[in-house]
Amino acid sequence: MRRILRREKSGYALGLIFCLVGLFLLAVxxxxxxxxxxxxxxxxxxxxxxxxxxxxxxxxxxxxKLIHFTILGAAxxxxxxVIMALSRKWFTLSGETVLLTCPYCKNHWRASRAKGWAExxxxxxxxxxxxxxxx
Length: 135
Ligand SMILES: [Zn+2]
Description:
The protein is of the alpha+beta class.
């Protein structure tokens, strides 16, 4: 049970990282577009052709058009959102635990679900645990 929970948390973290990377790429594109928009008027009038023509030139001579960044950023963001949504679903499915109370020693412990009969992990009595709190 514990191992499954951890994997779902890392899935959630992975989704979050994808979302942030996607947002970062989109932010870079908007920042570049905003910078060029301040010097030339044609950007705001024709953003679509601007995205196709304008490109980043890297030091090693490879250029990426802004449209590639836009599509990549949106795709990564959507992928991250899907991973996060799936991770959250799995998390709530298996993360449901109840707090059980022993009627003899009054100690609490967590279980994946309410049980009719169980052995108390504290006093080792075979008891009918009371459900204190459901999560
Ligand atoms: Zn007990």
